[in-house]
Design brief:
Helix 1 (about 40-45) runs antiparallel to helix 4 (about 135-160) and helix 2 runs antiparallel to helix 4. The chain folds into 2 domains: about 30-190, no CATH class; about 240-315, no CATH class. It is mostly helical. The strands form 2 sheets. A two-stranded antiparallel ribbon has the order 1-2. It has a two-stranded antiparallel sheet with strand order 3-4. The chain is built from 10 helices and 4 strands. Mean pLDDT is about 80; it is low at about 270-323.
């Protein structure tokens, strides 16, 4: 029996014919969080690189959310490299969470030990309110850590202001916890979206290694238990059934064929209608030629197409999460 009872002939007749096809829209969620410290905001925004000045990039929560979404999606498509990244994210998260918990307990304990004082911890007169809307659960876990970090900064600042915490201890506490969070965020940056799957790991490994090298990313060692799917992160997406993946990939193959034909016709000067799957937003046109397809369509094609010519397909992949 179908799980969807909102079909003619399946609902209880007592509900009336007017209730048929009364289907709610797609579920969505968002959250709002307030940050009081600049240190927390810095870890949300991250920092861009400036090679001329020797400044390295810092992956913040905003970019981690984007990159972890790609990892999460690929893990659902049976990519062992994505599963390996999720394991590393989980390990880094657990270490950062424990460190934050211990440091916050120490800072709050200092303030609570002052008998006869009712202390309000430092807070901003203009806290920054951010609306969050993430695809990956790991992005939400990162946001929870960042909120704890904001609380730690405030409590530690209060303790330092009252002479309970030395400047040296303050610096060690904030730097160590901030580094732990950054270590979690940077794990997703090691991922490169490719068509790799457990079923074709041996056949595609060399081509995928080349793609990782082009992106200046290290090809991660994948232990056997991860490669065969016995070991996954506790927080991982369910792997889609083979038949579902096949249907999606066949559809994406047809889209890719349409794209190639459109490009070939444009280059030959033949005016053709844009395929329905290419939106105006996703198309860059130069001299009447379709030169590149970007955005979500390209990401899906890059991460999903199965082709006999794996080398050419991998060269066409894109990873929008690079810093």
């Amino acid at each position: 029996m179908s799980d969807d009872w909102n079909q003619p002939g399946q609902s209880d007749p007592i509900s009336g014919p007017g209730t048929v096809n009364m289907t709610p829209g797609k579920l969505s969620m968002k959250a709002e969080v307030k940050f009081h410290s600049r240190l927390a905001i810095n870890l949300f925004r991250g920092r861009k690189a400036d090679p001329a000045k020797g400044i390295r990039p810092i992956i913040g929560l905003a970019r981690f959310a984007q990159q972890s979404a790609q990892v999460w999606s690929s893990a659902s498509r049976d990519d062992p490299m994505a599963d390996m990244i999720l394991i590393r994210i989980e390990e880094a998260h657990d270490a950062a969470e424990l460190l934050l918990k211990n440091c916050l307990a120490v800072a709050e304990g200092m303030l609570e030990s002052l008998n006869g004082f009712s202390i309000d911890v430092e807070e901003s007169i203009r806290p920054v309110s951010l609306e969050l809307k993430f695809y990956s659960p790991w992005a939400w876990k990162g946001a929870l850590l960042l909120k704890k970090y904001d609380e730690l900064v405030r409590a530690s600042l209060t303790a330092r202001h009252m002479g309970l915490l030395t400047s040296e201890d303050w610096t060690k506490t904030i730097n160590s916890t901030g580094t732990a969070i950054r270590h979690m965020f940077v794990q997703a940056d090691a991922f490169v979206m490719t068509p790799l799957k457990r079923s074709n790991f041996t056949r595609t490994k060399k081509a995928v290694e080349k793609k990782y090298a082009e992106r200046k990313r290290a090809f991660l060692y994948v232990p056997r238990e991860v490669l065969i799917g016995e070991l996954r992160a506790k927080l991982s997406p369910p792997i889609k059934k083979y038949e579902q993946i096949e249907r999606e990939e066949r559809a994406l193959e047809r889209q890719e064929d349409d794209r190639r034909r459109a490009i070939a016709r444009a280059e030959s000067g033949v005016v053709v209608a844009r395929p329905s799957w290419i939106s105006a937003r996703d198309t860059i046109t130069t001299d009447a030629r379709v030169t590149e397809v970007t955005g979500s369509t390209a990401d899906n094609v890059a991460g999903s197409i199965v082709s006999d010519n794996i080398e050419n397909m991998i060269n066409a992949t894109s990873n929008t999460g690079a810093p």
